[in-house]
Amino acid sequence: METNTELLFSFLDGHSARISEKEELLYLEALFETLKAWAEGTISPEAEEATKEEVRKAIQLAVLKGMKANAQPHHQMTPDSIGLLAGYLADRLSKGSRYVTLFDPAAGTGNLLFTVMNYMDGRTAASAVEIDDLLIRISAVTADLLAQPVTLYHQDALRPLMVDPVDVVISDLPVGYYPDDENAAGFKLKADEGHSYAHHLFIEQSMRHLKKGGHGIFIVPANLFESQFATQLHTFLKEEAQIVAVLALPPGLFKSQAHAKSVLVLKKPDLAGGPKPEVLLANAPDMTNIRALESFFAKVDAWAEENGYKTDSN
């Protein structure tokens, strides 16, 4: 018997394939039309009482198919295991607050953001930015289908944003060089010569949009602190943020060691002062290894208890 996720994917895939062929559209463009029709109620799947996670996963599978069919460097999706880890961290760092505001400055189709929002369902509202017109349209209609409150902005996220400070920024940062040197000149992390690192600028922009005491959860290159502008980044973080955690992600998630990533957690200093939290350094396990996963979360929970991240239930 097919699961709800499989039924929903078959529904999305079938409709999108037919639209793609009939209208001569790319699969992702046809998927958007399918999602829009579903959200408007003109078509509907046979799956009954599907959860938000089942809907998100089905859309994710269809988006992945479209990305493989029309591969583009900036069309990438954050693996579910990373999204669930980010959701756990966002929940833990916000101390189980009943209402948490989120922001993703590089949302893509919104899969990472929606994974976190589903994890904290009913307790979040979010803002998100995406420069790609098709991806943000898919993100918008997905938000409608998931009934998740997200305000979306179609623009270059490194330009001025109409986004109020939030509790948590969460983002799988775009990696590479930022081509707009004139705009980059307004950032502390700009390169002295040539193009600046986009992922460094995204970190700086994100810190600007955090509340004091808020946290940034960033998916970053594993060699972030060994790169060409690492010294500059160290100086910026020393002045503008506190490093809370660096979690190495399982190598099996990536094509090669050159593409390996980590989770960097930063805190925007607040007025309360007091001792800085001890930096959590750990290797995240393979999410399919239940015993290793339980041990990892126990370690993170123990660290959180010792460093002022007790939840309301503690």
Mind sketching the topology for me?
Blueprint: H1 4-23, H2 27-40, H3 52-69, H4 80-93, E1 100-104, H5 111-119, E2 124-130, H6 133-146, E3 150-154, E4 166-172, E5 177-178, H7 181-184, E6 196-197, H8 198-208, E7 210-221, H9 230-240, E8 242-248, E9 261-267, E10 280-283, H10 290-306
Parallel strand pairs: 1-2, 1-4, 2-3, 4-7, 8-10
Antiparallel strand pairs: 5-6, 7-9, 8-9
Helix pairs in contact: 1-2, 1-3, 2-6, 3-5, 4-5
Short description:
The chain is an alpha/beta fold and 314 residues long.
Query: What is the CATH homologous superfamily assignment of the largest domain?
Result: Vaccinia Virus protein VP39
Strand order of the biggest β-sheet: 3-2-1-4-7-9-8-10
Mass-distribution shape: globular
CATH architecture of the largest domain: 3-Layer(aba) Sandwich
CATH third-tier fold name of the largest domain = Rossmann fold
Number of domains: 2
CATH class of the largest domain, anyone?
Answer: Alpha Beta
Average the pLDDT over all residues and give the rounded result: 92
Number of strands: 10
N to C succession of SSEs: HHHHEHEHEEEHEHEHEEEH
Measure the end-to-end span. Answer: 41 Å
Unreliable residue runs: none
Total helices: the number is 10
Q: Quickly give the structural class.
A: alpha/beta
What does this structure look like?
With 314 residues, the protein is of the alpha/beta class. 42% of the residues lie in helices and 18% in strands. It is built from ten helices and ten strands. The strands form two sheets. Strands 3-2-1-4-7-9-8-10 form an eight-stranded mixed beta sheet, sandwiched between helices. Strands 5-6 form a two-stranded antiparallel ribbon. Helix 5 (111-119) links the parallel strand 1 (100-104) and strand 2. Helix 3 (52-69) runs antiparallel to helix 5 (111-119). The longest helix is centred in the N-terminal third of the chain and has 20 residues, at 4-23. It is globular. The model has no long low-confidence stretch (mean pLDDT 92).
